[in-house]
Amino acid sequence: MPEKENPQSVKTIRIFAAASFLNDLGSDIVYPIWPMFVTTTLGANMAMLGLIDGLGEAVVSLSQAASGYFSDRLRRRKVFIWLGYAFGSLSRIGYAFSTLWSQLIPFRVFDRMGKIRGAPRDAIVADVSTDQNRGRNFGLLRSMDNLGAVCGIVICLLFIDIGYQNLFLIAAIPSAVAVFLIVRFIKEPHDASTRVFKGLSFRNISWNLWIFFLASAVFALGAFSYSFLLLYARDAGLKPSMMPVLYLIFTVVAALFSVPFGRLADLIGRKPVMLLSFACWGIACVGLLAMRGTVGAILCFIFYGLHRAALEPVQKTLASELSPEGLRASTLGAYQMVIGLCAFPSSFVAGLLWTNLDKMTPLHLSLMLTILSGVLLSLVKEKKSAVK
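Now predict its structure.
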């Protein structure tokens, strides 16, 4: 008989889900128009777009590693979470008043620093979950992220005529509401242990966790940002007005399948679902190589949505379960740091290859790295208790 869930744990998950919905609602008012705003309105080239996006991911990685370390060290989670949402809200106000692409850089850094909320929040989610529902809970959060994204894109489509500045200002509001929810309704978890944790160190990392980090890092090196996918579609002949629609298709698919993939991971294990996510990314890349017209673009973004739906809940679940005892926030932060530091050169190099060689070269490189990451992931051993 399944164990009855703790009411406080259920409440915590629901509040986090609501905050995730609101934050991504604001974020995805911005994201569908971001590549066009940077390249067309502010005049950046593809290499600079890759630099800005990659720099953002690098900041994500460092901020999550730092917040994870200090969250474990100080045994505090909540302050990092609400501050992260506040950073996201304030950065969008900065975007609204930028007139040169170079002015976006500090606000992009500030925006991505908002991810300091990630590792502490995920540590709370992992702690209040069981082996039987952890994948589902992470899947729920990702599903609410994507549902918020769908609503944000719809708002973007409906109000795009009011101009980028006004859209960015509107986008700042939902994350401010998320700050209120976290401050008002989330209780700071209290660790009953008397031990003092100094944070994650190299000696705490098992060989199994090292392989998982390596597999994820290799994949991240080839997984360039979504901005490139939208511009591939544009160059295949789709009108700029179709870009938010394609992004909407991706987010709807990701929202619909995040919870099912999380449940599937609880049933059959984390690795098979993560390997499936790699396969969906590979199919999307092959589709971009052969893409012709609207139907081809839609299919590519469907597989991209399936990839994100399968990847994001499962990788956090697996990272938390492979982490040393008492160091979940540090491990999750370090994991995001590895991914982000690899995502920085990924997008920047993709932009350089696009500009200086051929726009298809980043896709060939990504396919090779995806295959290698799948081989490495197959060597990772899951904890038996995490698989029913």
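The longest helix spans residues 293-322.
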